[in-house]
Each structure stands twice: as C-alpha cells, then as structure tokens.
Amino acid sequence: MEPRGSGFPALLLAAMLFFGMLVGSTAWVSLNTGVDDDSEGDEGNDGEGESELVPVPEITECASDEIEVDGECIRIIAPSNLTFNSDTHLLIIGYFHWLEWTASGDAPDYLGIECIDTGAEIEFRENNSLRVRADFPEMADCVITIANVGGSTYASLFIEFVDRPPDELAYLPDAHVLVRNGFFQTTEPFWGGGEPTSWTVTPNLPEGLELRDNGVIVGAAAGLLPATEFIVRASNSGGMDETSITLTVLDTPPNSVRYADEEVILTIDEQMDSMQPSASGGAAVEWSVNPPLEAGLQFDNATGVISGTPQQLSTRTAHFIWANNTGGSDVTVVYITVNDHNVASVDYGLQQLDLVWNYDTLDLTPSTTGGAPILWSIDPPLPQGLLFEGSDGRIHGSADTLHPWTNHTIWANNTGGSFQTWMEVHIADMTPGNISWLDGTTHVLAANKSFSISPINEGPYVDEWAVDPPLPDGLYFDTNNGVISGSPVGRDGKKISRHAWTVHTVYANNSGGSFSENLTFSIHDIAADHTELAARPVGVIDYGGAWPSLILPISEWAFSVGVDWDGRPIMSAAHAERGRVVGYGHETMVARTGGDNRSNLSLNALDWVCDGLGKTVGLESSFNGWKDTLLNEGYAVIIDAQPSDLINIDCFVTEFWNGYTDAENLQITNWLSAGGGLILGGHAWYWSYSNSDVAHNYPGNKIVRTTGLYVSSSSGSSTFTVGASAWGDLYRLHGSLPRVRDHVLGGQQMTQTDANIAAKTVNLCVSNLPLDFTDSWGALRDMSNQTGWIQISSSNPFTLNADEIDDLLLNIQEQLMQRLPADELAPHPSSSIFPGSVNATAPRLHRTVTIDGNFSGLPSDFGYANARSHGRMSTGLYVSPGEVVNVTVPASLLGQNAYVLVGAHSDSLWGKTTLSRHPQIVRWWGIDATTIQVGNSFGGPIYICIPAGATLGEFDVSIDGAVEMPRYVHGTTLLSDWQIALRGAPAPIAELASDWFILTVPSSDIRNLNDPDVAMDFWDDALQMEHNLSGYTPWPRVERAVFDVQISAGWMHSGYPFMAHLASSPGVVNGTYMRQNGDWGMFHELGHNHQWMPSTLPGTTETTCNLHSVKLMTDLVGVDLGQGHGALSTQSRISRAEAYFNGGSQISQWSVWTALETYLQVQEEFGWEPLTTALTVYYNMSNPPSGSDAEFNEWVRQISFATGYNLSEFHKAWGFPVTEATENSLDHLPVWTTDPLRGWVYEYDPVIRNATEVNISTDSATLDWTIYDNGTNTTWNVCWGTSDGGSNSASWDSCSSIGSNLSAGASVHSLAGLASSTIYHWRIYVDNGNGRTWMDATRSFTTA
Questions:
Q1: Which of 557, 641, 723, 980 is the most buried (most CB within 10 A)?
Q2: What sign does the dihedral 752-753-758-763 (CA atoms) show?
Q3: Mutual orientation of helices 804-819 and 774-787 as an angle, nearest 10°?
C-alpha cells in the first residue's frame, strides 16, 4: 500500500493519539522521511529519525477524512483485511524470520504491535514484513494494528518459538562388551543442533543399566546378554534424532584356576585322592583337558574333578585344563606321573671286597625284593679289571690294578624310585707301593711357618720309612710313619739359592721289598726377600711426575715391595715357580741411575731377580741407558733384548706395555717358570683410555697367571715407601684374604688396624680382578654367600669408611652384581624398597621398538653437562629385579660402542659417607652379539645407549621378557591411553618425555596424574628458554632428569642425566604447581648444563647457572627476584654489594651471589639479549682465552660489544683485572655513566679526551674538551697561565671552578683578559672522593 498524498491533516494526528490510548504499550511507528529502514531496533537512538510534527496549512475545502491532491479532496480509505500467511507460526530460536502481511485500503500511517508477556523481538520492516526473533523457546501472542485517518484494522498473530532439534547423534564407540556385574559407563554421546531435553531407549536396557539425562548409559549389568542393538532417541521442543548402540554382556571369565597339587605322582593300581579345582572370577560352566588323562583316571567335564585308579605306567605328562564360560577361559597345568612300586632291598651277600692285586677274581649277582629294577648304576666306577653290569647289577672280573679303599654306591632303579646300597673295594700289593702325598711331590714352603705332610699308603704295610738326602733345615722326617713336619728355616744370611730346589728320596720298606718316591722342596722367605730388595738404602722414594698404576700381588707367592700413603702397592714382586719377578707401576721407575735411593731400588730389584753377580742381563731397548751402570756392577749386558734372546740371558728387563706376540709371551713364561729373573715396568691407566678389558688384553696382564703381578688401570702415588722390613702378609692377597675370611666368618679376629689393612688389600683386588680369576673369586664368592646380602635403605642406612671389612663385603656384592652373567643374577632384597618391585604376575612382554641411533651429544666445552655421555634411548620397558631379558639388535650395531643400560639411577654413591641405597644400581651391558641377555639385581628401565657423535639411523630392537613401564611421550601418546592403561603399567619407575626434556620419576608420583601435557608443556617452555638464553641453538640433545632416593652430590646436580632427590618429583610433574611456583634448583642445575667453559669466568661455576634460574623465575613463572630466591631480595642484594665494596672489591672474593649481582646489574639495564649475544661469540672461538686475567678481559670486551657501551670501568669497579689493551679496544664505545654503582658504593674517576682550543683572539680563547667519563661526585676546575704548573694547582697563574658533576659529552670554558702574542698553558683537574685527577697532559696555545 502506498500513500496517495504527502499532506498530514490534523485529523490524522488526533487519530494517532486516539489509537495510542487504546493499545497502551503499543509500539509506535511514524512514517516520515527520518526513519532508517535498515536499523535493527531503537536502542541507542539519539533522536535521529524520530517523528517530527510539522504544522501544515489548514485546508478548509476538504473534510477531515480527505486529503487534497492536486486541488481535489480525495477521501482516505481505511485499511482492512490485514492477513498473514498463517495465524500460527512455528519458528526456530536464534534466527531472524520475516513474516509478510497484506491489507486492503490506503497505506497506513500507523503500525502497532502489542504482545502478551514475551521476550521475543518483533518489529515492522519495509516491504510489508515483520522481522521476528527469539533466543529461548516461548510463545508469542500478539495483536498487530495498522491505521490511517480513514480508520484502522488489526489481526492476531501467534508465534511458537522452538529449540533446534538435535542432529548427528552418535556414541563413540557404538559397540561395547560388558562384564556382568562390572561397572560400565559410556562417554557422553555426541550431537549437533539443539541440546536434548529428553532421552529414551528402545528396547529397555538390561537390568542394572540406566540411561541418564545426559545420554550416558551407566551401571552394572545383572545378567548376560548377546549382542543387542538399542535405539537411543534424543529430543527437545524442536524435534528429535536417534542413533544405535550395541551392547553385549558376558560373564566374568574364570581366573586363578589351580589344583592344590599341580605335580601329581601316582603309583600304578593304587587309587588316587580326588582332586577338586579352585578358581576365582566367574563360575566355570564347562571344563576340558588335553591330552586325555592316563588310563584308569577320570575327568569330570562339569566340575573339573580328577579321580580314579591309574592302570598303566606313565612318565611325567603335562595336562592342560581349561575352565570356560561366556566371558572366556583360564588354564592351568597338572603334571601326572604314574610310577611302579619301589625296589625294597638289594643283597650281594657281602659289602667289602678286599682283593689282592693280580690274584683275586670274583662274580657276584645281587638278589632283590619289591619292584623289579630296570636299571643299575654304581659311583664311583669300579677299579680297572672289575666290571659292573647296568642291566642286572652283577659284579665280576679280576683285580688288575692297585686300588685304595673306596666306597662305591650302588643304585637299583625303576620308575618308583631308587634303592641304594654300598660296596667297599680295596686292591693291595703284597710289597710296599702305591704311596702318594696329598699335595703332590713338589712343595713350596713358607719360611718359619709350620708345615706337615703325611704319606698316603694304599699298598701293603710299611715297616720302615727313610729319606735321603736330609730334609731342609727345620723340617723333620718320622721314620715310623713317613710324616714330614716342622718349620723350615728362612735364609737369614744362609743365602739359600733360588736354584737350590732340593730333591729328597723317600723310602717305604717292609719284608716284601722297598718303595721310593722323590719329593722336591723350595722355601720362600718373603721377609728375607724384602730385606734383599732394600739392601741398598731406599726408604721413602719419590718419582716426581710419574703417574703409576697399581701392581697388585695376586699369586700365592707375590708380595708388595713399595706401598704408597693409601696402602696401595706401586711396586710388587713374586716367586713364579722357580723364577722371580719384580713389577713397577711405571716404566720410568725401572732403570734409575745417579746414586740416589731410586737407583738403589733399581739395583736391589735386579740383584734379587738375578740372585747373584756375574749374571747376564738382557735390556729391552727402552732401558739400554742402564747398560753402563750394570757393567760397573759386574753384570754382563745384552741391549735391545727380545724374548728370542732369553736362551742366552739370566735376567730380562722389559716393559709391561709391550708388543709381544702370544708365542713370545709363552717363551717368557716358560723361561721365568724354569728359573729366569724378570723385571717389568709400565702403567695401564692410559692404555685403558683407548682399549678395553685390561685384565685380558693389556700386554702385561697376558702373563699374569705366571707372574702373579696384576697391572691395574687404577693409579696410585709416585711417592711410596720401601721399608727395611717387609710390609707383611696383610699387604698381599694370599696373606690377607684368609685372615679376612676368618674374621668375617667368626674365626680368628683381627685388630681394627689389621682388619682395615687386610680389607683394603683385598678390596683392591675385588675392584680390579674379573670373575675368571677364580683362585681369588672362588673364596670371595663363598665368603659373600655365607655373610648374605647387605640390605640398605633410607630406614636402614649404611655408613661407608666406618669399617673397611663392611666396605669390602659391600664391594664384593657390587662387583658380583656388575660382572655376573644375567642368568646368574639374583634379585637384591633392597630392590623392593628402591627402585621398587614388580608384581610376579605382571605380563612379561615381547616387543619390538624403534630406536633413533642418531645422537650428537654436546660439545665437550659444556663441561658440567656430561657432554659426551652416551645418549639414553628409551624403550618403555623395564627389567624386573634378577630376571633375564633377551635383547636382539641388528648386526650393524656391533662394534659401534653401543650399550644396553638396565637402570636409570646411575649415580655412584661410593663417595658418600652414609648410604640410603646401594652405591651402584644400574648395569651396563656391552653389545657384542646380535642377541644378548641382560639383567640387573635391582631391575630398571631398559635403554639403548648410543655414543655421542653417532649417526646410526633408525633401527629396530626386539626385547623379550620385560614388563611395561608407565611412559608418556608428549605429542605422541594419546591422553586416553595414558589415563586408561599406561599410567598403571607395572614397573615402579615411569618416564614423561617431551621434545626437550625427559623426567624419570617413581611411578607412584604419576599414578594419579591425569594430564602430563600440563607439566611437559611447562618444561618444554623452560628448556627452550634456557637454550635460548645460552645462545647455543638449536640445542642438540634432549635433557634428562632422574629422581633418586640419594644422589652423589648436593640436593641436585647437573649432567646427563641431571640428578635430583625423590622429594622434588611430585612438584616437578605437577605442571600447575610449576607454573605458579617454579623450581629454582631445577633451573639452576639445568643452567649448569648450559655453562660453556671458556665463558664461565673464574669463581662463577655457581653463578652463571643462576642466570637461568633468574630468567625462568621472572619471565616464565612470573615472580620477582626476591620471591625466586631469598638471596635476591632487595635488601640482601644491597647488603651483599656494600659488604663486597667495603672490603675493597677483591676479585678473589667475587663468586656466587656477589658475582651474580654483576651480571644482574648489566641485565637489568640492557636486558637479556646482550648476555646471550656475548655468550654466543665464545662458541666459535678457535682460540678461547686461557688463564684468569685473559678470561676476565675477554668477557669485558664481549659484553661491552653486545651492549654497545664501554663497561670496562664498571667491571674494574667490581675488581676485574682489566688491561690497558682491553680499555683501548673499547674506547670507541660510550661509557655506561648510569651504572648503579656510581654514587652508591664506588667512586669513579673522570676521563677527559680531545682537549683543544678554539676561537683564539688577542685577549681570549675557548677551551674545548670531551668528558668521556664524568666520574662521580666531581668538582671541576681549570688552571691556566704563562707557565706550566703541572699537577700542582698552586703553581698555576690562575685556577677557576667550572662546575660540579658535569655530564658526559662536549664541554667548553672561555678565558678572557689574556695578553696578546703570548703562550698560555692550561690543564683541568677534578676532585672527588678518590682525590684529585688531572687531565693527562698540559695543553698550550698562543694568543693572536
């Protein structure tokens, strides 16, 4: 409808007022040119577009219901027939809807809307439409009125606003298998559209389950249910949507099925006791067995009961028995053996056979009762000539050989068991013979120690015994029984030669004849040996710069010659069968000349091994320089001697570290055993840096089984003592070990002093000798087995160095745990306390994992970071204590210096005083085959360890027999997998890993951790911030932190891995806590890992790492310095700085917090970036500074360049030894004249540059200079005159003040009243608390 005129009669106004009174709160719309049809409402309208009543001329010619158009009065037609397309509208909330209306008559001048109690937005819009909208479901009941001066009309409008119907309803997953009576809950279903207000399900859910008002199905199903599809409908006022979900309810499977006896041994034809199975879980509905039971036995498939009487013999047979129901099955094994009746008796008619050699014969067949034997056996075997039949036990044959009385056990066996009897057999000669000695015919005796040996006569009776020649002094021969006893006399000046091994014939006589045997004796007098080795005075001997290895005397007749301050043998000697050998811990000790005590010792050693003058000595080429000395001593000498020369020499001087072949080593040992004299010198510690297995591969140790002298890779002191008396048995393994065993096992007790010496001697061998040195380790293992495990924990600590014996036992057990093969390791009882035990029922897995074999490590100048340590590549698997795990690697990994590491807590605690755990609880396994067995008595995570710098690429490793450990990899592990399963994995140690950090923590600290991402996001931020601050980016290594019950140093310490105490673990895995509180210590130790040695100034080891703590506490955690650490409160900083400067700012006292203040003052002025920039420069220095002064000066240069300011004066104030060269290199930079020390704790002297004169006239001049450093608390003066007054103001014609505390920069001063054509001199001086400072030199000028 369009208006037919533009007039606005007064009647229209009256009509509008009338309608307004009718409708009350009706919305009014005036049709005028000010209305903006595009506006969305009247809110915010400042009056623009409001109706304005404009006076119009009164038309008297037309009636009130007419209008004048072109001079004619035309009647206004009232609107009528107002209609909408429907009286009722169903609309969706949240959207604008347009309703069109139509009406007859002329266009309305008034539009009105009246609604009853509605929040809907309804308004007229252009083109005869209404725009409506509601945000909530409701009913809108409205009356719409339109009017003009001709009249009005109205219509009712009913609108129902409804919600959006739900859509895309779905459960994820949409199929579930439930366990009867087990709690079940779906996740909340997904839907689109409007939120459902009602939920229904068809058919009804099983008993015990319910559909909640959020669509979740929850409960515990009471009954079984096959796979059933349920239709779930979600609806609201706007409509509904439906989806399906399939539920299956199974029974709880049986578990823990077992029989009381799993090993059943039955006897044929004897009824067995019925066996009733037991089980947990769901009830079994069916039982089965495979293979079937033996004949005569019954299996009840309904109950699983086994009963009956076996009717046939059967070897041990495994029967697998299953208990089944709808939920699954469980299986157990019963082993059944059906045996015969046992043999009851065996009778030969006699039990002693005393036979005469080459005379008697016999044939004996036994009788038996009970079950029939099917197999006979005898042990030990009968003497030669006598036969034993295994089929029937018959003994027959003849006495063909002499044989002592021996007891032979005879067994008659069948499947029912064994019956045993015995038979004694003796075959004797008629004349004396078959006489022997228990330890053989060669006897090496210790001087002055009691000895006894008796003959073993297995022949006829001996009437008389005799010996010729007589035995050595001190030994006695009993002619009645042939016993030799006594205490052999030592040399004691008699000088019994080592070649005088004496042979003595022993005779056994009777009336039938005589028997003879040769016995050889040698007597070793170690006390006399030591006296001879100290014949020329020696005493305390110092070899200066030599760094010797320990020479351990490990054979029966080896002993210490020179022992250092810590009781360690640096020089040892030994009797090697008929020869003698001396070993020095360093080759430079062997052939000393010059007449001092070192040359005395060299000659003493040679005299002892050669045992007499006039011998021929062979010198290996390294010792040719000793030739003249030996010639003067009466020796014949062959230089450049080799093992091939041994046939011509008596004594050989060579090196332990040599290049001899196996054949040459055999030449040496044969020659030595036959009576040669050998001197060896050399160290193994340096060799061990680039070689492995010192015990078997070091040249000098290839002959250790003969020499008895073991060259250790451990070092000792180059100063040691060779006393006039022997060091004694306590300093040699074979003397100290028996004493220790007696002491430990309750025998003869030693004094504490002796016990300490003996234990230390044995301990050195324990730490160095591998297990295949069975002569030593056999006794050590036996002793350890008898003493039992040493258990250590926080509640049962162990004190080191309190008792050397206890320390020794602890070390023996550690060495066994570190050296035994995996299948011989037992679980250590302390492992259940830490790291923790693994449930015996936890699944042992077979898993293949992919390992990243690329590991660059860090450059070695990151000196506190274990920069070149092997990278630990996690497998996510754990070895249970004492169990064997098989690890298979590709062949390409062999020879790559890779390892398998079992255990994470790799700190060695031997340096501690009190132990809360064993000192070493990880085990490194070298990869020397594609499949290896690994283990650890304490258990631990399994890592594949890659050497720094390796680029091995990715490879697969198969692991069999390990258990799963809780492991979360940020960005890889699904949070749902973590929450449902992974955090409950059975291992007691867990790992949280991210791109930049790996935390190894007790599993108990993460069992309830729902979202590890919170913590790992924080640590990634922290590590990136530390990396960026260091300037070494990208950082090439993922850092690790391991939390341990005890660590080797401090509360935490840096390295790879970074180590910390367990107490820190709960906070570290709590990301929210870390965001709010941080951890200064963690940041501090990670800061250590970022310290580059050339840029770590003297005294700042514990300083520059704190820059990282400051950075993270302030920028990441968001706390101020005082909150970050109490030492950085404002007052602490002030007091510390004032104390330092009051003490004269001595650089020797500049460390830790004081030094940190220096860095912080720079950082607070210039920000972090200059520090990073300065640090970055050092990474590419080809020749970094060396020495304290050079290091201090280089830092001043680099931080000045980075800030753009000359900070030399600032650092000089702090006590830095800044050189003139450094100052000159920085003089192009402006001085930092606002540093916080100025005017507070340090007085700076001014620095003046570029002094000159300008504007010189006949009577005036302008003095011009630059204030480079304005100093502090300064008063400035200028002096001038016709003569140079030097540095004495009183000597100048004139001096004038030019101000106080002048600013840096250009400065001038004008002089007036000067005489023309006159030479003037001038100079500036400045006074402050330091005294008076004069400008460097006097300036001069001449007036015009």
A1: 641
A2: positive
A3: 110
